[in-house]
Amino acid sequence: MNRGPTGRYENSQIGGEQVRAFIPTPLPPIPPPDLTGTRQLLLEQALLALGRLDSVSTLLPDPHLFLYSYVRKEALLSSQIEGTQSSLSDLLLFELEEAPGVPQNEVTDVSNYVAALEYGLERLREGFPLSNRLIREVHAHLLSHGRGSDKLPGEFRRSQNWSGGTRPGNAHFVPPAYQDVEDCMGQLERFLHDETIPLPMLVKAALAHVQFETIHPFLDGNGRVGRLLITLLLCRAGALTQPLLYMSLYFKENRSAYYGLLDQVRMDGNWEAWIDFFLEGVRMTARGAVTTAQRFVELFGTDEAKIRTGGRAAGSALRVHSALRERPIVSLSNICRRTGLSFPTATNGMALLEKLGTVRELTGRHRNRLFAYDRYIQILSEGTEPL
Fold it and tell me: Model pTM?
């Protein structure tokens, strides 16, 4: 539906040139989104896929195993959209203190994203409302150190930003002037908490994501916080008991369509086209996550069966394998700390896993060796190739 522009332009002078900043109209759209016909079917399919994803914990012996790694995959993908070139293995090595030499700046961005997501979710579990204060706190963790740490972490911007182009005067899109950010974000916060608005939770999340990206309230990190907002909204609404829906792979694989639809909403008011895209992303992402969880269950079961045929070392190897399911790149000293095994016993267990082809030694050294659960990492890394 073409409603016309979903905001107004405000002219100003920046650096001696004319700039047209876009100020979005408060949500919800008028008239409300058309959710009939095929769009209603798509919404039902997305909700069904989301429900199946939420029950994925019943497939796994410990859902936190999946959650630990999946959060890191999302962090990597979301950071890649912003230009980071790290790999999942880089992040896992970075988090393993015994593994120096990992490129710091790139991986710090991803590690900060993990910390920001975990912080936001913990605050929601404590009963803190999903508010502008929480969004600013999440942003502070995202830019706590490394690149962007000089871009007002945890504070709304106090200068003009833009996307595309080298300056506001030739930019593809210029969000509201900094003087309007507080008011725009206040309106968005009221929309998030207004239970009288008769919109399905997924549609509300779709609208809020576009509005946040249009306001662009921070000097840096807006894309990452905007994607985090989707997960926080779904967890706050009770649609997910664990944060297992991550849209970054879908957005990464469909970048041109994603940015084109954001423009289409702003210029033409075609919220329906964006909602279709978003719901299809939820459906595909949720189904993909369920498939990944099923593949992990199959992998763990197959490997455990092989290990049990390993004779006297099988018992210690099973404990090492269990630790590898939690952290798929480890050192022997790390295994000892986490399992309580002695160093010789852990070494024997790891040797059996290496003999069976379950793990691969990474360093080629005789001391301070590192081991990777290769097949686990391969499954998890699918789609995370740098752009």
Answer: 0.90
